[in-house]
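Morning!

As promised:
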Amino acid sequence: MVSGMSQVDDATGLGRLEPKSLVQLAADAVRKKILAGDLEPGERLIEERLTKELGISRPPLREALRLLQQEGLVVNQPRRGSTVVELTSEDVYEILTLRSGLERMAVELGVPVQDPARLEVCRQALARMRACAQAEDRGGLVEAGYAFHASIVALAGHGRLSAMYNSLYQQLLLCMARNLYVRERFYEDLETHVDRHQELLDVVERGDPKAVLEALAAHGERSFSSM
Amino acid sequence: MVSGMSQVDDATGLGRLEPKSLVQLAADAVRKKILAGDLEPGERLIEERLTKELGISRPPLREALRLLQQEGLVVNQPRRGSTVVELTSEDVYEILTLRSGLERMAVELGVPVQDPARLEVCRQALARMRACAQAEDRGGLVEAGYAFHASIVALAGHGRLSAMYNSLYQQLLLCMARNLYVRERFYEDLETHVDRHQELLDVVERGDPKAVLEALAAHGERSFSSM
DNA sequence: ATACAAACTATTGTAGACAATAGTCCAACA
DNA sequence: TGTTGGACTATTGTCTACAATAGTTTGTAT
C-alpha cells in the first residue's frame, strides 16, 4: 500500500539521488504501520518499542514522529508521548471538505491540461485501477485510486497543492481503513467504480473546466453521500 | 511579530495547560529568526551554531527543524543539512494561489457566520490593525493583518483549513520580508490599507457568500496585482 | 599552469546514557 | 468504605559522545 505511495511521493522531479535518511525510512515505516491498521487509532506509540521493532535508536525515530505529527497522522502531547490520531466525525468532515476543495482548485488551475505528459500519468493510474478491479485486488484498487486522484491534482503543476492533497489523503486512507462505509462501497461493482473514474478523466481530457467541476461534484457526492 | 502569531496558534481551544517542550520553543525561536530576516533565505542552518545561540543541545533542535521542514520554511537535504527555503517566483505563485483558494473555501464554508464570537475575533483584529496604522507601526500592522486574515479563515471553524492557511501565511511573510512590492505597498496610505480590510469585514458581516467572494477577489487583486 | 588526487576539517547522522516527569499501585488514615 | 498520600515504574525529554560523510584545501604530477 505504501510502496505505491512512496512511488508518488518520489516524484520530486530531478534525478538527484538522495540516500534516504533513517528518519525518512522510519517515517515511511510507521506511516505504513498506521495505515495498515497495525497501529490502531488512539494507540500510544512507545518509542522504545518502535525502535526495537525498526532496529534504530530513538533520535531518528523521534524526528520521524515529528514529521508524522505535522502530517496529521500522529498527535503529540508533551510529556505524554505520541499516539495515532483518532478521527472524529468532525475530522472526517474536515478531511472530505478540504479534499474536494483542493481538487476543485486543482481543476481550476490545471484544466485544460497543457502538458500531455501529466495526462498520461492519469491514464496510467486509471489503467492500474482497471487492472486491479479485474483482478479483484481491493487493496491495490485503493492504492491505484489514490494515485489517480493525486495525478488529477498534479495536473495543476502546483507543488504545494499536491503536497497538501497527499497529506490529507493519508488521513483519508486512515478513515477508510477503519470505516464501515468504505467496506460497503467496495461491495459495489468494482468495474462500475473504475468507470466513474474513467468518466471523470474523459471530461478532464475534453478540457472544459466547468464540466469537470460538475463531474467532480457528482463524483464526490456519489463517493461520500453515505457519510 | 511572532508573539502575535503564537497567540493565534495557541487557539487550540481548551484550557489544557501544556508545558511547551524545548522542541516547540526552538521551533518558535528559529521561525522567528527566519521571518525577522535574521536568517536569510538560502542560508545554511548550522546545527551546532544554533544550539549555542539557543542554549540547547542538538536533538531537540533537530526535531524543531523537522517541524519547520514540514511547515515549508526550511528545506533539508540528507547529509547536507538544513537551509532556509529560497522562494522562487514559482513558489510565490503557488503561495498566492493557494492562499486565495483557501480563503475562498473558508468563506464558502463559513459565511454567513453562525457563531458571533468568531466575528468578534475579526473585529478585534481589525481594530488592532487600525490602531497600528494610526501609530504608523508597520511591523504591528503586518502582524495584525495576519491575525485578521486568519480570523476570517477561522470563520469556517475548520481546523485543518486554518492550519494549512497559517502554514502558508508563514511562507508569505517570508516573501514579504524580502520582497520589494510589499515595501512599496506600505508607502500607500496605511489608513486606506485598513479601510480595504474594513470593507471586507463589512461584507462578511452582511452574510452574503457571493458578495464576500467578489470582495475577496477584488481585495486579493489589489493586494497582489503588482506581482 | 592546470588538473587530479589525497588528506583534512567541518558538519551531519546515529547511538547510548542520564535526568525528569506522569501515571499507577498500595497502604494508611478518616 | 472511600480518599489521600507516597513510593515505584514506565516512558519521555535531554545531553554528550562517537561514526560517517561531504566539502575544501593543499600538494604533486603532467
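Residues 182 and 188 of chain B are 10 Å apart (CA to CA).

Hope this helps with the figure draft.
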